[in-house]
Amino acid sequence: QIAAYNEKLQSVAAANLNLAASNFFKKILSANITFTMSGATSGQAHSFTLEIEGGNTYSVTWPVSFRWMNTTGSTIPPILTSKHVISGYTIDGGASWRVWDNGSFV
Question: 18-40: per-residue pLDDT in tens?
Fold first, then answer.
């Protein structure tokens, strides 16, 4: 059952990706950043897509709950390019996230 599905693009001013507001985010980096997640409800599945610009210029720190699905180690994040896309999902209210690197875009 799909309930309250939201595809609204939200440009992120701060570092928090709030799933209660949207599930598709865009962040243009102008400094180092530590992303946080919020808005995931226990008992529901949630997913997100994050488009990042400037990831090759600034340092990005990811939540410790992220488990990367396409690298040699589950806690090793990808090396970001100037324009990059990351996606993920949770089924436990945000306690853990399965996240993958979608690669760069032009």
Answer: 998 888 999 999 999 999 999 99
SS (H, E, C) 15-84: CEEECCCCCEEEEECCCCEECEEECCCCCCCEEEEEEEECCCCCCEECCCCEEECCCCCCCCCCCCCCEE
Are the C-beta atoms of residues 52 and 76 closer than 8 Å to each other?
Answer: no
Q: Residue 15: which residues within 8 A CB-CB, separation 6 or more?
A: 33, 34, 35, 36
What is the chain's mean pLDDT, rounded?
88
Q: Distance between CA 3 and CA 12 in Å, rounded? A: 24
